[in-house]
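Job type: complex structure
Entries:
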Amino acid sequence: GDSVTQMEGPVTLSEEAFLTINCTYTATGYPSLFWYVQYPGEGLQLLLKATKADDKGSNKGFEATYRKETTSFHLEKGSVQVSDSAVYFCALSGKGSQGNLIFGKGTKLSVKP
Amino acid sequence: DTGVSQDPRHKITKRGQNVTFRCDPISEHNRLYWYRQTLGQGPEFLTYFQNEAQLEKSRLLSDRFSAERPKGSFSTLEIQRTEQGDSAMYLCASSLLRPTSNTEAFFGQGTRLTVV
């Protein structure tokens, strides 16, 4: 069945460092891909998404490109801030619905000043 | 609009008791989803509704679990005869399905269930 694999954390970076969180997927058909973020004490929020191959999703300085050839959707940010400390989840949509999501296990990011 | 709200935020119950959670989606959203998240894992899909119809149930949803959305607005998730393995965060999400597109899913803050 469909699945998502993302790099395990925790990831600890210094402020202004470059961030990459790897995500690969297995799916039949052409799913939509998402990154959700969960800040401490808050609910899941959509960070960015891409709905077809070669699309780039971007938001708040984060970017991810839908790579069909490598079945990947890696999350990147050029310069992280302390406020980016959170848990990041890669996800794909199942069966054509953007709500029926399959999530990775999450990667906890801690950014130190 | 205050987003998706869930009640209660926390619930502690004794093993064998029944519990019920409530989810109020964003008012115009016609799709409503339930997920379960255990510590260190990503959310796992349980079930979803389109209006009042329950269209899909995961194999994770055992016979002790039942979900309803009687008027196509709020939803309840009931767990009967709770077990310690039911301890988790239960998340609700909603989205708006249009004829040619579907909005993103908006999540509530979840109900954390602890079975002792």
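Summary: The first strand of chain A starts at residue 3 and ends at 6. The mean pLDDT of chain A is 92.
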